[in-house]
Amino acid sequence: MWWLVLEKEKPETTVQQSRVPHVLVVDDERAIADTLAMILRYAGYSTSVAYDGERAMEVSQLKVPDMLISDVVMPGMNGFELAIWFRQTHPNCNVLLFSGQTTTAELSQKAAAAGYSFELLAKPVPPAEILAHLSRLCPLPAAVPLPVVQPASDAPTAD
Question: pTM higher than 0.90 for the full model?
């Protein structure tokens, strides 16, 4: 078993300038989906989680994500089928797939034959690698410094 420790300083003098990108994480392995969503939230993204393709489609109708990160091999709808549905339904949504299965190559070829190509990462994917892909495909808005308010020099003092 491995543990991931994240440390991050959160400056109190910044505010997000624009909307935070929303990421939908889909994996039938709940621990993976929940952990990845937690890492992404900690990094500054807004997230939703689904544990199968059908639920991911429902969730995306409630809040359209900017990014779909999905496992490929899942019961029912596989990740490539889900990614194709996303490209057709939410064309502005970026897609990143990951898999630890060797059967993924055949599914990737079927998607390519249908005219679709997706970025595919091999499990296990280090969180830093996922964050690097996200920062390229779906960057966080720049933080803007807040003005520092100084007390007036002529402010009344308590006696």
Answer: no
Q: Determine the residue type at 27.
A: D
Beta strands (DSSP E) in 30-132 are 46-50, 67-71, 94-99, 119-122
Q: What pLDDT is stored for residue 141 in this prediction? A: 83
DSSP category for residue 36? H
Mean predicted confidence (pLDDT) in 5-13: 41
The pair of three-digit structure tokens given for residue 82, joined into one six-digit string: 């889900």
For residue 109, what pLDDT is reported? 81
Q: Per-residue pLDDT averaged across 66-80, rounded?
A: 94
In words, the CATH class of domain 16-140 is alpha beta
Per-residue DSSP letter, 141: P
Domain ranges (residues) in the chain: 16-140
> 66 Cβ partners below 8 Å, 6+ apart?
21, 22, 23, 92, 93, 94, 138
**Mean pLDDT calculated for residue range 18-35:** 94
Distances, alpha carbon 72 to alpha carbons 36, 92, 117, 128, 156, in Å = 15, 20, 13, 20, 66
